[in-house]
Amino acid sequence: MIPRIVEVRQNVLRKNDELARSLRTRFDAAGVFVVSLVSSPGSGKTELLQRTLSEMRTTKQVAALVGDLATDRDAQRLARSGAPVRQITTGTVCHLDAQMVERALDGWDLDTLNVLFIENVGNLVCPASYDLGEHARVVLMAVTEGEDKPRKYPTIFNSADAALITKIDLADAVDFNRDEAVASIRSVQPELPVIEVSSRTPSGLAKWLRWLDATMNRAGVAARGH
Amino acid sequence: MIPRIVEVRQNVLRKNDELARSLRTRFDAAGVFVVSLVSSPGSGKTELLQRTLSEMRTTKQVAALVGDLATDRDAQRLARSGAPVRQITTGTVCHLDAQMVERALDGWDLDTLNVLFIENVGNLVCPASYDLGEHARVVLMAVTEGEDKPRKYPTIFNSADAALITKIDLADAVDFNRDEAVASIRSVQPELPVIEVSSRTPSGLAKWLRWLDATMNRAGVAARGH
Prior knowledge:
Two copies of one chain form a homodimer.
Chain A: H1 3-30, E1 33-38, H2 45-56, E2 62-68, H3 73-79, E3 85-89, H4 98-104, E4 115-119, E5 136-142, H5 149-152, H6 154-158, E6 162-166, H7 178-188, E7 194-196, H8 205-219, H9 221-225
Parallel strand pairs in A: 1-4, 1-5, 2-3, 2-4, 5-6, 6-7
Helix pairs in contact in A: 2-3
C-alpha cells in the first residue's frame, strides 16, 4: 500500500478503537455481555446463533445485531428465535466497525439485556482489525472448509477468544482430520479453546453454552448489571 | 466512510484499473488467456485448480499464481499438477491487486504460456473491486455454504463471468436446494453461466473445461499468440 493509504488506515483504526472502548464502557455500565462471531461466508454463524438465542432466552435477555452487505435474510432467520434482532447492512463494506454497531444500538435500552451477540459480515480477513467493543470474539470454521484455514488466515484466529469447528456432522463425509485442524489452530494461538458443534445434532451446543456462561462470569459483566 | 477515505480509495482503484489494463494488453500480446478464481475460504478453489491444471497441461501450457495471506500451502498443492506455480503472499491484505500480479510475473516468459490462472485470496467481498487484468473471472460457491450467498454478496457475483457450484457430491448431505441456489445467482446476474462441479467425482469437470475452451476461443487470445 502507498504511504498515504497506510496513514489514513491507521487513523481510521485508531478512531475505531476509541469508539469501541467507549462502547465497551457502555456495555459494562449496562451489564450486558457482548460476543461477536466471525467466519467466512457459509460457516454456520447464523445457524449457530439462531439455536444459541433460542436456548439462552429461556433464562436470559438476549439480543443480536447481524451484519451483511445486502439483504436482511439473516435478521429474519434469527428473529425466529424470538429474540430482538437488528440487521446492519454494510453495502460494499467488508466488515462491521464500532460506528455501525453504535448506530444499530440507537434507541435500544441496553439495561434490559444480559447478552448481545454481534454476527459480523462473512469474511475471515477484514473483521480482524476492527474492535466492536465486544467482550469476546469467537471465530468459526466449518469442517468443509479444510483443516488449514487457521494457518492461512492467522490474524483472525490470533484475535479470537475461542474457535468453533462447525458442521461436525459432515466430518466423515469430507474426511475431516480433527487433529490436523486443532494443530492448525494451536499453531496460531496455542491456548485457544476449541469447541466442536453441529446444527444437526445436540453435540457441542451444551459445551458452547457452558463456555459462554463461564466467559461471561469471568468477565463479571452480567453479575454487575442485574 | 469519511470523505477523505473515499477519495483515497477511489484513487487506489483508479491506479489499479490503469495497471490492470496494461497487464491485459501484455497478456493479449503474449497470447495468454487469464482466468481468475474467487470465493470464500474453503470453497474448493485450490482443489478445482489442481485438477484443472492436471487436465489442461496435457494439451496446453498452463500456469498459476495463487494468493494467500500467509503460507505457501496452496502453491505446494498446485505444483503437484506439474504446472509452474507462484505464490503471492499478501500479509494482511484481503485481496490481490494488479501490482501484486505484475510483480509475481517478474522474470516469467509469458510467450511460453497459453493459459494463466490466478487464484485470489479467499474472500467474497474485497476482490470484487480489483481488476487483475484477467480475461474472465469465475466465482465459486460450495453447496455447504448455503443457497443464499449470491444475494448476500451480490457485487462479486455481478462481476463474474461464470459461477461454479462446488462440492456437489455433498448436496444431499446438506439438503442443498439447487433451484434456490440458481435463482439466487440469477437474481444478481440473470445470464450468468452456472456449472456444478465436484472434486470427488468427474461430474462437472468436463463441462468446466469446455466452458474454459469456449471462453478462451471467444476472447481470441490463444489463437493469436500461438
